[in-house]
Amino acid sequence: MEHPYRGRQPHPHTQRSSSHRIGATSTMTVTSSVFTDSDPYPDPDNIEPLDFLVVAPHPDDAELGMGGTIMRMIDEGMRVGVLDLTSGEPTPHGSLDIRKRETARATEIMKLTWRGNAGLTNRAVEATLPAREHIASFFRCLRPRWLFAPYHEDAHPDHVAATQLVEAARFHSKLSKTAMPGPRHHPQRIYYYFCIHLRLAVQPSWIVDISEQWDRKLESIRAYESQFITGRDPGPPSLTDRFRDDAAYWGRLIDRQYGEPFATKEPLAMTSLRDLI
Ligand SMILES: [Zn+2]
């Protein structure tokens, strides 16, 4: 949530492998020669395409913004991944090791198909050309049908930059005659989840019923103890009470207990009206 700057530190997931450069054979796991703190790109020959990939500026944003929907879709048999752009550190009560453990715990609760970290620098995310190619390389190797990015209006510069980066990398991902690993791939749609730092009265495009997933969503949020519990005002309301209140508000708008809102720039395409509440 808060990311006071104390300088760049090595990423906990670091798997430096200077011999694994872009352009290595397709059966090898490769990693960017620029973003050395990044996890390696998954081998496209050894991973089935994802149904959707959630791109999160920091570990915890995917859980906060759409953890219920992620778990609902996994419950229904979809293959879902999360790509965290940065380590999220430093923060007042976190450390690289703590965040790594917390992220692993949340990943286990959500039963994600895949999770990786792109090794960009916290509080310094920018949609540069190297960053675009780097994120597009993950898209090409994971081949998600849809992408989920943070909502485009936010106070946190990393979130705003992440949205721009996902949109640019989506286009880059389909380019031919490039050194990027993996096959050309163009995710069909980008949708936007809300994990915003502004007190906005947002108007979502749709809301997903997450009533059955709420308890597990809260558990996944609580996994990030250093961010949402340690040092926080115990309330009432506590920070987690606020998250529940938000989910109940969105649920009430669709006559359900809990909900999660989403936005889309392009019109929604539907094959049926069956799932409309
Ligand atoms: Zn964030």
Automatic annotation (TrEMBL):
Molecular function as annotated in GO: deacetylase activity; hydrolase activity, acting on carbon-nitrogen (but not peptide) bonds, in linear amides
Database matches in InterPro entries: Bacillithiol_biosynth_BshB1, GlcNAc_PI_deacetylase-related, LmbE-like_dom_sf
Gene3D superfamilies: LmbE-like
Annotated region (Disordered), positions in chain: 1-24
Origin: domain of life: Bacteria
Compositionally biased region (Basic residues): 1-14
Any single biological process term in GO: bacillithiol biosynthetic process
Protein name per UniProt: Bacillithiol biosynthesis deacetylase BshB1
